[in-house]
Write a structure and sequence with these properties.
By secondary structure, this protein is α+β, with helices and mostly antiparallel strands. The chain is 20% helix and 31% strand. It is built from four helices and 18 strands. It has helices at 2-23, 27-40, 67-79, 94-105, and strands at residues 48-54, 57-64, 85-88, 91-92, 128-130, 135-140, 144-145, 154-159, 163-165, 168-171, 176-185, 194-205, 208-211, 217-221, 227-231, 276-277, 282-286, 291-293. It starts with a helix and ends in a 5-residue tail after the last strand.
Length: 298
């Protein structure tokens, strides 16, 4: 009786194994399920992949849209029931990756507003023009004389008062000046007249020297001590003494009783003496031509 039960058990096992084998999905079903899942997944549906299955072994071929999609397709195949092995022969489509990268990385269009026009540059500063007729009050550095000075002799001095244009100082006091003795003629003891004519030739401002032109300042001494003074071109007559001490000497001050239009000369003489202009005497020279200076520095 015991020996008859063994075939029965074996038969049941065979029947169970056959039933289990009958429940295993077919290769066609496995391939179709994988294909459908790849097409439905948003990460892999843009890939062109073919699925082949044989005896539980799946082979993937074709092109995937990205490395991530390739990995996801292989994962789907491994998770499919009845699959024992997956061979992935797909390649990543470089054109799809470039298009995706271009779409992802393309910068948003930049909307630029038209640039506002640049403001016009400021006008260049204008030069300083000191007009003709301006008086330069000069303190002499050298003593001058109708007897000892020579025609063509140079003399120096400095500006005793600043010169202003439009209320602003154009040349400061103390600026160096140079001049020329145009005529120097000694007075005779009995006859003849003494004469001393001067003009300015240049002035130095902030380290630069400029040529200037002034009216001729003429001082004449006639017989018996009669003296006349005039500025050629219509300047003041009658001596136009601004500074100087009678009898000569240094330390002459600018006279308060003579106006700015005075034409000449702080001369000192008595009787038949010569025309004498001591050092540091104050003289007034009138510009005969305008003087142009560079624009003021910022």
């Amino acid at each position: 009786m015991r020996y008859k039960t063994i075939p029965v058990v074996l038969l049941i096992a065979i029947i169970g194994f056959t039933a289990a084998c009958s429940k295993k999905p077919s290769d066609e079903t496995v391939a179709k399920d994988i294909q459908d899942k790849v097409a439905a997944d948003p990460d892999t549906r843009d890939s062109q992949v073919a699925v082949a299955a044989k005896d539980g072994k799946v082979t993937l071929t074709g092109r995937t849209s990205s490395p991530a999609a390739q990995q996801k397709i292989e994962q789907i195949a491994h998770q499919e029931p009845g699959v024992s092995d997956v061979t992935d022969q797909t390649v990543v489509d470089s054109n799809s990756m470039a298009a995706a990268a271009s779409t992802t990385m393309a910068p948003a269009p930049v909307v630029t507003q038209p640039a506002a026009p640049a403001p016009p540059p400021p006008p260049p500063p204008k030069p300083i023009v000191i007009p003709a007729g301006t008086v330069f009050t000069v303190k002499t550095a050298d003593a001058l004389s109708s007897k000892t000075s020579q025609s063509g002799q140079s003399f120096g001095g400095s500006l005793a008062q600043s010169v202003s244009v439009n209320g602003k100082t154009a040349i400061p006091a103390g600026a160096s000046v140079n001049g020329t003795v145009v005529t120097a003629k000694s007075k005779g003891k009995v006859k003849g007249e003494g004469q001393l004519d001067l003009t300015l030739t240049s002035i130095s401002v902030k380290g630069h020297t400029y040529n200037i032109h002034t009216e001729l300042l003429s001082n004449t001494l006639k017989g018996k001590g009669k003296r006349t003074a005039a500025t050629t071109g219509g300047g003041a007559a009658g001596g136009a003494l601004i500074g100087g001490i009678a009898g000569g000497g240094k330390g002459a001050a600018i006279g308060a009783g003579v106006g700015a239009a005075a034409g000449f000369v702080g001369g000192a003489f008595t009787g038949n003496k010569q025309i004498e202009i001591p050092a540091e005497a104050a003289l007034a020279f009138t510009l005969s031509q305008p003087l142009t200076l560079p624009p003021p520095s910022e």
